[in-house]
Amino acid sequence: MPHIVHLEAGRHLYGGGRQVLMLTEGLVAQGIECTLVCPPDSVISTAAHPDVQVRTLPMAGDLDAAFGYRFAKLLQDIRPNLAHIHSRRGADLWGGMGAKWAKIPAILTRRVDNPESAMLGTMKYRRYERIIGISNGVMEELRKARVPELKLRLVRSAVDAEACQPTWTAEQFRDEFGLNNRQLAVVCAAQFIPRKGHRNLLDAWAEVVSACPDARLLLFGQGPELAPLQQEMKDSVHGSTVHFAGFRADLRQFLGHADLLVHPAQREGLGVALLEAQAAGVPVLASRAGGIAEAVADGKSGVLVEPGNFAELGKSMVRLLRDAGLRHKLGEGGRKHVAENFAPEAMVAGNLDIYRELLLADAEAV
Predict the structure, then answer these.
(1) Does one domain contain both 125 and 91?
(2) What is the pTM of this model?
(3) Measured CA angle at 147 (ends 146, 153), to 5 deg
(4) Residue-wise burial string across 103-123, b where 16 or more C-beta atoms lie within 10 A, e elsewhere
(5) Are 94 and 175 in the same domain?
């Protein structure tokens, strides 16, 4: 039975971390031994499947060169067949180096479409046998970084559609966020960092509430831009229509009661929140950036607009909020789109095919 070590450096259960949990659970169900390596203070360290072994290592980010040595020592101790690196924060650079030192073949999954220089790409990616992109948008950035085509593989992220169905009642949802029966809930669930486009959303919001006075904006997430945006909205005439709801680990328990999910990102690898919303039957309005055009079927499960165009974003929000029939149609289209293209079984099988490819090649080389 092959043994795969998975390295995840994230401390919170954002989209990438949930993908790692889903993958490892799917692998152990097929008899694959999995060890998860993560920071000692991370949420994922206690959220893993009971059959997944968990080993914690201190990880201090991109400048923590000693992490490569610590990871190499751990790999030498447990001797897995493969190491699968899932995140950045130094894991992609030093994790690959540690695997090289330990003489363990390594795979990297890249989840973001941020551009990288060819020099950095050459230095980082040469340590990996395969690099997995979660969308064609990510794959294109990897090609720009001069990653050899023979190393590249596409395996899209997935969602468990059943887990995305709300367990709250509509009344619980309205009570929790102070909504009355007339008000329409527009949700944005994203880290408060520049590339997620919150400023464009708030710039568009003035037009939305002028045309749709019963619209309310619920912003879920945390990050460095949260406090400045909260302060700005305190001084806005529309501030009472915007609710900063914080990071909610239980988002999927009530997301299906939203009337619309908006995602105005400037860059995005794929967008797990977009998949979760569609799986729950919520229509999506998003920017046409990175892998979003793959996550959202424009005109079938949602509406796509140009990144950074807050005027177009606002007009599209107004159109969707005024047309309940269109929202319902897109919501049903989203359920179908996710079921056909983003099933967990397909994601697990795609990764497993790559493992087998490398393990077979390694066995033939012996």
Answers:
(1) yes
(2) 0.89
(3) 140
(4) ebbbbbbbbbbeebeeeebee
(5) no
Cα–Cα distances (Å) from 129 to 5, 106, 173, 193, 256, in that order, read: 15, 6, 46, 32, 40
Tell me, yes or no, whether 266 and 315 share the same domain.
yes
Q: Locate 241 and state its tokens.
A: 């229509």
Assess contact for 209 and 179: CB atoms under 8 A: no
Residues of the chain with pLDDT under 50: 365-366
Q: Length of the chain in residues, anyone?
A: 366
**Where in the sequence is the domain holding 42, given as residue range(s)?**
3-158+343-365
Q: pLDDT per residue over 175-228, tens digit each?
A: 999 999 999 999 999 999 999 999 999 999 999 999 999 999 999 999 999 999
Per-residue pLDDT, 61: 84
Backbone angles phi, psi at 116, to 5 degrees: -135, 150
Whichever domain contains 86, its CATH number is 3.40.50.2000
pLDDT tens, residue by residue, 54-74? 999 999 888 888 999 999 999
Same domain, 20 and 115: yes
Question: Which residue, chain included where needed, has tokens 């005024």?
Answer: 322
- d(CA 103, CA 93) in angstroms, rounded, equals 16
Number of domains in the chain: 2
Which amino acid is it at 258? A
Rounded to whole angstroms, the Cα distance separating 202 from 217 reads 9
Please indicate, yes or no, whether residues 324 and 183 belong to a single structural domain of this protein: yes
